[in-house]
Design brief:
44% of the residues lie in helices and 20% in strands. The protein has 664 residues and is α/β, with parallel strands linked by helices. It has 5 domains: 4-80; 83-172, PAS domain (Beta-Lactamase), CATH 3.30.450; 179-313, 2-Layer Sandwich (Alpha-Beta Plaits); 325-530, inorganic pyrophosphatase (n-terminal core) (Alpha-Beta Complex), CATH 3.90.1640; 536-653, Roll (Diaminopimelate Epimerase, Chain A, domain 1), CATH 3.10.310. Helix 6 (200-218) packs antiparallel against helix 8, helix 10 (325-339) crosses helix 15 (467-475) and helix 15 packs antiparallel against helix 16.
Length: 664
């Protein structure tokens, strides 16, 4: 009927138009004529008809909108109740005041929830969801994406929460993440040294045992295992299997240590790449991770992640490198690199100690014999080796310069040699490092995450006792090895004695060989001992810290709350002295230095203090490590240290988590 109304209206309008036209024509006729009146009547009727049709259409239109409005109201009222998305409305106190059928079934599990707090139903903080964003939760075996809309009306506040079921998407995402390809690069630590002198049959037996271990390790994982070399292997596997290995804390490391070779235990270093966009990138990340694991001393797993590196293992002391072919090659390359450069700048770490300064003096000797000008870049006012620095002023005048002057004169043709550190965070002057086109690093500390990466040449041996040992070892390979002056020999010997605690800690066969060479070159142990001399006030302060030390389990901890001159030297000496207490595996001295709160940590090898310091943002070596934090008091730092020690103790006592298959 409504469809015919426009047609009738059009017909009426047409009739009215024709009547009007006829009326105009008929006006020429006489008024008394029948034709005139007939046309006039028809015109009037057509006008009335048009008016009637317009009124009727208006009435029907209003009735149509009224029906549509009632239908929309019913739809708006019933749609939220029956829509497939779970919806709930909360009041200002986040109590549920309304929900639809889908929420009742899928989220509330068929229980009435009116008047209850939302947090009693689902593990969700409404305040944490910003408008326009969402949060993902798991409820009753299903996954939901929750969005929040807040509105106010007449002083009343309410919030609408929509729970979108994304279970299928989450399962698909998990399947994708679990099946992403990962790469594991595995190396037998110190392979040549380990099998030095071993019979071929013994080597074959050990490697066969290792392959059996790999087969058991990869059983049921659908992984690809291949040999890259005698001591190097690669594994391609899915990410889910790597996660299972992580949950179990990589038992492969512990099982490998049970394989004995020539009285030593076999150890492995593993690099894992899993966060790359493709297989090639993961292979690159795995190699980076392996380099990091080896740089930290081996016997551990390093995993490259989006945030940096994650480490497992690293509990053994490692095996000293008996073969020094690498050192000989670096010595040759260093001399060749110096000969191509215009000037050599040598620097250590901030607050340089005897090892850093002594190693720098040794590099100066190499540069002098090569015929290249050189300088030591050092902030003398902050150095901890003040007596040695004063002797350098006497023995080698004008050789020490400030970092600011070095930055002003360095060119692209110059060489920067960094000793006793591999970290960008503590190098003496990081700007000078960044300005240098050619950089050489000589260090013995275990590699940290923020390491010096753009190096032209590096000699990094975490099994060496000190940087001074590495430098002195290189000098032995030159023809002019016998021309070393006495002062240079004493500076190098002082560095070795500092880091070995007078040949007690971290010493190997090569350490004593180098010490014998330095002694042969005139190094006087008595003169070296004077470089360690301290003031009476420092001795009293050290005694005070030792007396105030407290035992926490098998750890000695002491705290200095006041600013004390030469506190870094005092703290390291105090930490060494605390190791002499019975049943103490590690010592920690906490002290303030300027705006920083610091820890000096030491151990005899029973505990890896580097791992402890890394948990607090620091690093170092297995037996010597440190950290420094801003915006933290020494009291707060002590509490954080104890928390880390307790956590490590719980991790050591707790059995490895058995991987379980997650619900699909």
């Amino acid at each position: 009927m409504q469809r015919k109304q426009p047609r009738r209206l059009i017909a009426a309008v047409v009739l009215m138009a024709l009547s009007g036209l006829a009326a105009i024509i008929g006006m020429t006729a006489e008024p008394g004529k029948v034709l005139f009146w007939f046309i006039t009547v028809i015109f009037i009727l057509s006008v009335l008809w048009v008016t009637f049709e317009m009124l009727r259409i208006r009435h029907n239109t209003l009735r149509y909108f009224s029906r549509m409005n009632r239908a929309l109201k019913e739809t708006l009222y019933n749609a939220p109740e029956h829509m497939p998305v779970s919806v709930a409305i909360l009041d200002a106190r986040h109590e549920i005041i309304w929900y639809n059928e889908s929420f009742f079934v899928n989220v509330a599990d068929g229980e009435e929830m009116y008047g209850q707090s939302l947090q009693e139903v689902v593990p969700l903080r409404v305040e944490a969801i910003e408008e326009g964003s969402f949060s993902e939760i798991e409820r009753l075996g299903r996954n939901f994406r929750v969005s929040r809309t807040r509105y106010e009306r007449h002083g009343t506040t309410a919030e609408l929460l929509c729970f979108q079921d994304i279970t299928s998407y989450v399962r698909l995402r998990k399947q994708y993440m679990d099946t992403r390809p990962c790469v594991l690069m595995i190396v037998v630590d110190n392979y040549e040294d380990l099998f030095n002198g071993a019979r071929q049959s013994e080597r074959a037996s050990v490697m066969a045992s290792l392959e059996v271990l790999f087969d058991r390790f990869l059983d049921g994982t659908d992984s690809v295992f291949c040999h890259l070399d005698e001591d190097r292997f690669m594994v391609l596997t899915a990410a889910v299997h790597v996660l299972e290995m992580e949950r179990a804390h990589f038992p492969l490391l512990d099982e490998a240590r049970k394989i004995a070779v020539n009285g030593s235990n076999l150890t492995l270093s593993v690099g894992v790449g899993r966060s790359g966009d493709n297989l090639a990138q993961n292979e690159h990340f795995a190699q980076q991770s392996l380099d990091m694991a080896l740089g930290r001393g081996g016997d551990q797993v390093a995993i490259k992640t989006e945030e940096g590196f994650t480490f497992y293992g690293g509990v053994s002391k490692g095996i000293e490198h008996r073969s020094k072919a690498r050192n000989r090659a670096v010595a040759r390359d260093l001399r060749a690199l110096m000969m191509r450069c215009r000037h050599v700048y040598i620097m250590g770490h901030r607050a340089s100690d005897l090892d850093a300064v002594g190693a720098a003096v040794g590099v100066c000797f190499i540069a002098e014999q090569t015929g290249i000008p050189y300088n030591i870049v050092i902030r003398q006012e902050t150095s901890l080796a003040k007596i040695l620095v004063d002797r350098i002023q006497t023995e080698m005048p004008d050789v020490m310069i400030d970092p600011e002057y070095a930055r002003a004169v360095i060119t692209a043709e110059d060489l920067v040699v960094i000793v006793d550190t591999f970290s960008k965070d503590i190098v003496e002057d990081v700007e000078l490092y960044r300005m240098a086109k050619h950089v050489v690093v000589i260090d013995h500390h275990r590699q940290m995450v923020n390491y010096l990466d753009n190096t032209t040449l590096k000699l990094h041996d975490p099994h060496a006792s000190s940087a001074a040992e590495l430098v002195a070892g290189m000098i032995q390979y030159f023809d002019w090895r016998d021309q070393m002056p006495q002062f240079c020999a004493e500076a190098l010997l002082a560095g070795i004695m500092l880091d070995t605690k007078n040949f007690v800690m971290q010493t190997g066969v090569h350490t004593f060989e180098v010490a014998a060479y330095l002694r042969e070159r005139g190094a006087d142990p008595t003169a070296v001992k004077t470089l360690f001399a301290g003031s009476m006030e420092a001795y009293r302060q050290r005694s005070k810290l030792v007396a105030e030390a407290e035992l926490h389990d098998r750890f000695a901890i002491t705290v200095e709350e006041e600013q004390v001159p030469d506190i870094q030297i005092i703290a390291s000496q105090t930490a060494d002295e605390l190791l002499g207490i019975e049943h103490v595996d590690a010592s920690f001295v906490i002290f303030p230095r300027g705006e920083l709160s610091c820890i000096s940590a030491r151990s005899l090898g029973a505990m890896n203090v580097q791992v402890v310091m890394e948990r607090l943002g620091g690093g170092g070596h297995q037996t010597m490590a440190a950290t420094q934090l801003r915006d933290c008091t020494v009291t707060e730092l002590r509490a954080r240290l104890i928390a880390v020690l307790d956590q490590l103790g719980e991790e050591a006592e707790a059995p490895a988590e058995t991987p379980q298959e997650e619900a699909n």
